[in-house]
Specification:
Structural class: alpha/beta
Largest sheet: 6 strands, mixed
CATH topology: Purple Acid Phosphatase, chain A, domain 2
Shape: globular
Helix content: 25-40%
Number of strands: 12
Order of helices and strands: EHEHHHHEHHEEEHEHEEEEE
Strand order of the largest sheet: 4-3-2-1-11-12
CATH superfamily: Metallo-dependent phosphatases
Length: 271
């Protein structure tokens, strides 16, 4: 089994993908989410972190409703731009959404006029959004959950940590008699993947990864874990028997080809 990964795009198109598909002929593609062009939203959040986090104010409260609606509408609508391109690649794409994407719930909360990612993706036959899914790939099973457990109370998709763990556990229990691949947006806690190296971020210098994922990897021991979210340190680490791949960022030209043969996994950065 051969997989080509596309990391977080943040509104940028993976222009190298057609060349890499032709060169490596993967069976399918995997995309780790964060399709939306959210640079303006992230800048507004990071610049007002204390008010949003400690004082419980909304983004509209701190930057004004007009600006909030403008930048969030732009972000939500930009998702379609990336979905359309992914669909044009002519390969099956397995996609999860991340913390910078907009679901129907997020659209409602932001009080903007746009479609959620789960609505936008419906018109693209080659792109399958995996929200809470178990997929039989033949040689292995794929367990995938969309969303993000949140670095703190303001940075998430309103799903509690316990719910994420429960959802993942139920899917893993379905995956028997075959090796399993786990696809989830967040990085595992206390690794080189989750050390923040972004001076714009109020969490710069801290480990902010998911303890849930560490627990899942320890308990269920998938052969491969594919994630994104934090772009500072793309590449491969190993946790126990699990090969963990941080797919990086499209604009940094981070692409990886994964080969799986039984329980053996090899990962190569390609260009």
């Amino acid at each position: 089994m051969k997989i080509l990964t596309i990391g977080d795009s943040h509104g940028r198109l993976p222009f190298l993908a057609p060349k890499l598909i032709k060169k490596y002929n993967p069976d399918f593609l995997v995309c780790t989410g964060d399709l939306a062009y959210s640079d303006k939203v992230r800048k507004a959040i990071f610049g007002n972190w204390k008010k949003l986090s400690d004082e419980g104010m909304s983004l509209a409260d701190v930057i004004g409703t007009k600006k909030q609606k403008t930048i969030e509408t732009e972000a939500a609508k930009s998702i379609n731009y990336v979905l359309k391109y992914l669909n044009s690649l002519g390969k099956k794409v397995y996609l999860i959404y991340g913390n910078n994407d907009y679901t129907k719930e997020d659209i409602k909360e932001a009080k903007i006029k746009a479609l959620g990612i789960e609505q936008q993706v419906k018109k693209y036959k080659n792109v399958r959004l995996l929200i809470n899914a178990y997929v039989d790939l033949g040689d292995a099973n794929l367990v995938a959950v969309s969303g993000y457990r949140g670095a703190n109370k303001i940075a998430g998709k309103n799903i509690k940590n316990t719910e994420h763990y429960s959802r993942l556990s139920k899917l893993f229990k379905k995956s028997k008699n075959k090796e399993t691949i786990l696809l989830y947006h967040d990085v595992p806690f206390n690794t080189r993947f989750d050390l923040v190296k972004n001076k714009m971020s109020p969490l710069n210098g801290k480990h902010v990864g998911s303890k849930i994922i560490r627990k899942i990897l320890s308990k269920y021991k998938p052969i491969l874990y594919i994630c994104g979210h934090m772009h500072e340190n793309p590449g491969v680490i190993r946790i126990g028997r699990t090969v963990c791949l941080n797919t990086g960022l499209v604009q940094n030209k981070d692409y990886f080809v994964i080969n799986i043969n039984g329980s053996k996994v090899s990962v190569k950065k390609v260009k």
